[in-house]
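debug: dumping io for the single-chain case to check the tokenizer round-trip. Nothing else runs in this session.
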Amino acid sequence: MSQLANDVWDSLRRLDSAAAILDILIIAAIIYALLTALRGTTAMTLLRGGGVIILAFFLLGRVLELSVVNFVVRNSLPGFVLGIIVIFQPEIRRALERAGRTRVRSWLTGAERDQALEEIATATTNLARERHGAIIVLERGTGLEDYIETGVRLDAELSWRLLEGIFFPNSPLHDKAVIIRNSRIVAASCTLPLAAGQGTARLGTRHRAALGVTEDTDAVAIVVSEETGRITVASDGRLIPLRDETGVRSMIEALLARHGGLRPAAQAS
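debug: decoded output
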């Protein structure tokens, strides 16, 4: 125990310069950003489990002065770093992608923006009443070109009638994704990634697709359930169910305002 106390005291005595304090603040910021990115994911559970095991070995070696255990802990850092990269590869990729996003301000005027929201809200409400399953994804700062390439390009003017026609049961393009960008329907029948995290097994394909695209990008997705007609909004990898159809536009507008702009993209599934 005395050895551990001496190590802590030696570390505290080194904190005699602004550089040392800045060093600690930078590491703390990195750890905080990592924990924030992993919050609410299965990776967080893995991180806690690994942290407990490492801490137990460290304390055991220091308190009981076990030289072999201390040697293993000291020389295992490169292996731990490599293991973290392999285990948390999806989360690291997502964090880097989010860090690289640029906040692109929409060129839409206020009237154009309101019109686009009205068309999307009207289509969503009508689809819910008819119980026609659909996903509408609003593209924002992160481009969805990878998903657009999997579908059929339309480049059509945004219209609630066209959206309803695309999502009409058994229509040629209804089964996959429609993408809207800058008040235009860019493509239909596009494929979205399916979320595979904890608790997603009980969800339908449309809801998993909405989660998947909002986990990988900053898009906002709207889902209409074919079975119940209920409307759900997905953002930042979270599903937000709406109580009724009247709140569709206000919810979309609030999420887009929080994210900082409107660059819609819609998806059919």
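debug: round-trip ok. The chain has two domains: 2-99, 110-259.
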